[in-house]
Amino acid sequence: MSKDAASLFWLYNTFVILVFLCGIYLVAVTKNLIKVLIGLELLTKAATLLIIVAGYSTGHIATAQALIINLIVVEVVVIAVAAGVVLSIRKKYGSLNVKNISNLKG
Amino acid sequence: MTMLDYVLLFMMAGFSVFAAVRRSLLQCAFGLAVVSILLTIMMFRFNAPLAAVFELSVCAGLITVIFVYAISLSRVHTQEEEQQADHERKLRYGVLPYIIVAAGLVIYFLQAPLIFTAPPSQAVNDVREVLWNQRLFDIIGLLLVIMAGVFGVVVLFKEKDANE
What we know:
The structure holds 2 protein chains of 2 kinds.
Chain A: H1 3-29, H2 33-58, H3 61-93
Helix pairs in contact in A: 1-2, 2-3
Chain B: H1 3-21, H2 25-45, H3 49-72, H4 79-93, H5 96-110, H6 127-133, H7 137-163
């Protein structure tokens, strides 16, 4: 990896970690189920950016693109099903707040 | 690296924090869509147009629509709940921007040496070749994931109709 590519990778890597931190923080702190999904999306965005920058820096951009297309397909399936589950929970309990879904407590 | 790289990256971090801390779920979904659009621009700049088009159409488009649909079915808070939620939200999310700025400065100035070396560049650089000719087994996995997703959505909505 050349010096320019390494510094570009490091700069983008810094922001990947920041977006990842946002996602982790949101998933850990929020009590709203839709916000949990938004946190998961932020985590996926960070992973996507890391893959594309790594592919660009190492000269394997085609492999990175193929991997990202797979990632996006999995991401949209996970979000669609999770949104359906969240809507079902909302219908059953009348709330999206995890504090009110006491039946899930172990 | 140009000025545009920095602008895009700072905007991405900013809108990530925006999506995390805003009270309104619609504004959170909007922030997420903007993050997707910024990611799309970066992909175009990294010469990855196919992934960029997927990201723009699916992540910025379809997933935002899914979120808006889910949010539209949720209940609006009463005045009392709103005040309570506002107070809790300030306690919970007030610290996030400071964490992000502090973490960004620490990570950037840490400048840890890269501990990996790139593999020899013998890979094919045509995405069509990689996507259609170099993958065999994972296509089956991908198809199974798509079918599982379709099946899950159909079952959930079918159950919803039956309950109504």
